[in-house]
Design goal:
single chain, alpha+beta, two-stranded antiparallel sheet, 3 helices, 39% helix, 23% strand
């Protein structure tokens, strides 16, 4: 799992990463050409948005918004595997 942020201030993003201590890789992308490319490719219209890719880097699922259940992503992935 990776997290990609579009925060405008790198210093605030770094502080949040220290506070939240998320165990997965974190990336910050500026709202420039890189973001525009991702926005077009994955229809990024709001955050949070999670994207699930298979081993061949094909998009197999996506979800917009927060889930209240802290295990929501794990449950969704498990349901996809069971198909």
């Amino acid at each position: 799992m990776s997290s990609i942020s579009i925060d405008q201030r790198e210093d605030q993003w770094k502080r949040a990463m220290q506070n939240e201590q998320m165990p997965w890789k974190q990336y910050l992308i500026p709202r420039d050409t890189s973001f525009a490319m991702l926005e077009r490719q994955y229809n990024l219209t709001a955050v949070p948005l999670w994207l699930l890719f298979d081993a061949q880097n094909r998009l197999i699922d996506q979800h917009l918004g927060m889930e209240m259940d802290e295990n929501a992503i794990d449950k969704r992935v498990a349901a996809l595997i069971e198909r």
